[in-house]
Write the structure tokens for this entry.
Amino acid sequence: MPEGDTVWNTARVLHRALAGARLTGSDFRVPQLATVDLAGWTVRESASRGKHLLLRLVDPDDERRTLHSHLRMEGAWRAYAPGERWTARPAHLIRVVLRGPEAVAVGYHLHEVALVPTAEEEALVGSLGPDLLGADWDPEEAVRRLAAGPEVTVAEALLDQRNLAGVGNLYKCEVLFLRGVWPWTPVGAVADLPGLVGLAHRLLAANRGRWTQSTTGSLHRGQTSWVYGRRARPCRRCGTAIAKRELGERVTYWCPVCQPEPT
């Protein structure tokens, strides 16, 4: 699930593959960048900001640009050795190809792909709240932003990247279960917002650097989550069947007993 930790890991994969390399070619399969050629540009660094990927580049004349992409639910970047077969996804899902002398980075099913002056990055990510895995992480500011919308449901507020950047459906569900909070509780009625925010930070930080996302402490298949992806299966605490509700791309899992609706 491409949430803050996955995007952080992806940024590090791209950094190891391309940082310091002068690109030998590029291929953009999105209309707005179809004619762009980044051959000759050097990759300075790869970074993440919440769920956004920022690949910073410089040309021989010191012009600096940032290639921005968003993974959403399906996106992924993969790094391959030159000549290696690209096997991660079907070819028709490829949106960006960046070729270096020692690695090729391929972006699949990417969203919001843009190439902007690096000085203008804030136009793309400046509205985001504190990044749970970033140097700007500020739990007090995250709590302040959440509390500014007391009538918003806590599930919705956690997904709003303007409050805190990096939480998606998986961590939303797991944090609320572990805190015993009914997902549709108004933020103003949540007893301990700092505790909620602190737990979200600890869970993402624990999974940083690995691809298996676990909130239970187990890395074994089928044992990594408390409620997420476990509809109708017994709650690991009380045995009640886990419930699920869908609204568009937003899915919520919860235990009706461990997370009771306020009376």
